[in-house]
Amino acid sequence: MDQKELEKAKADVRITQLEIDTRIIRSDVQNISKNLDTIATNHLEHLKQDISKLDTRVWAILFSIIILIGSTVLSIWLS
After folding, report:
1. Is 80 exceeded by the pLDDT of residue 2?
2. Which own/partner pairs from 59-63 qualify as long-range (CB within 8 Å, at least 24 positions apart)?
3. What global pTM score does this model have?
4. How far apart are CA 42 and CA 31, in angstroms?
């Protein structure tokens, strides 16, 4: 095998490896895209529900604190 044929064979191997790497990257990108869609449609909805529950609890706690402060101020004022 002469030098030109050897160089061509090496170039062909590099091109083939590039094609394989490109296919792997495309596959990974598609999988990432599917995972992001799943997160957006499923997990974010659960987070919204959890935050909504947490929001209600925070308002309840704040209301309780205001009632506690008000009753303390009222009891001091009446005594």
Report:
1. no
2. none
3. 0.41
4. 16
